[in-house]
Amino acid sequence: MDLYCAIDLRDGRAVRLLQGDFAKERAFGDPLELADRYVAEGATHLHVVDLDAARTGRPINRAVVKAIIDRVAVPVQVGGGVRGDDDVAELVGLGARRVVMGTTALKDPAVAHRCAARFPGHLVLGLDYRRWTEGKLEAAASGWLEGSGITVAELLDRWRDDPLAAIVVTDIDRDGTGSGPDLAGLAEVLDGCAHPVVASGGVGSLDHLRALSSMRSPGSGRTPEGVVVGTALVDGTLSVKEAMAACTASV
């Protein structure tokens, strides 16, 4: 299971939000210095998100994204405000290994399907969800500010035959909390698709990573390809080295 070290951007700074709430922000300084730190500690993948673009659709931090890609020698996965062909083409042209599309996949699926076909193996479906009280998972859009009325199961069925690089699955209510990943929700996604799946949201300990690396979904026996970790790395709760070791461990 690959470790994706997260760098979230807002107004040119590295930040973390609690449960996607822009009013609950913690600042962590220069994102270039953070990228350097992660790579120096052994990171093999970075996951960079333009939070401003996710909320507004305008690529406010694109220059910072480019600077990070140019600076490091590891694959960079980029998301936030990816609305169409031009955004994907620009980010791939800048050197992004993977480009994450979330809101457009919900609001304008024809555009999203076209991007997947035009950039096979580069487009990642960003599947961010909240769990309804009756247990269903609802996909969210626009920087997690809007519910979509579309269930995760419906969205996975819609994307079944597209040449996606992966699906990044984020439990919004756990993101930034360190309370642990939603293994049940992740299992639903693993059993509901054939694409590689990257888990995101809630990782706060080595035990959480070990649980993810050793899990097998009940229906298909699949396991996550990777995991995105943000707060626990940036605040020093976990080191990159120990987190990577836990990603290859079995409980």
Task: Based on the model shown, name its key terms.
single chain, about 250 residues, alpha/beta, TIM Barrel, 8-stranded parallel β-barrel, 11 helices, 12 strands, about 35% helix, globular
Commentary on this structure:
This protein has 11 helices and 12 strands. The protein has a single domain, classed as TIM Barrel. It has helices at about 30-40, 50-55, 60-70, 85-95, 105, 110-120, 150-160, 185-190, 205-215, 230-235, 240-245, and strands at about 1-10, 15-20, 20-25, 45-50, 75-80, 100, 125-130, 135-140, 145-150, 165-170, 195-200, 225-230. Helix 1 packs parallel to helix 3 (about 60-70) and helix 9 runs parallel beside helix 11. The mean pLDDT is about 90. About 35% of the residues lie in helices and about 25% in strands. An 8-stranded parallel barrel has the order 1-4-5-6-7-10-11-12, surrounded by 7 helices. Strand 8 (about 135-140) and strand 9 form a beta hairpin.
Q: Which homologous superfamily in CATH is the superfamily? A: Aldolase class I
Total beta-strand segments: 12
- Stretches where pLDDT is under 50 for at least 5 consecutive residues are none
Helix content: 25-40%
Overall average residue pLDDT = 91
Main β-sheet: number of strands, strand sense, barrel status?
8 strands, parallel, barrel
| Gyration radius, in Å | 16 Å
Spell the H/E element sequence: EEEHEHHEHEHHEEEHEHEHEHH
Q: Quick one: overall form?
A: globular
How large is the share of residues in beta strands? 25-35%
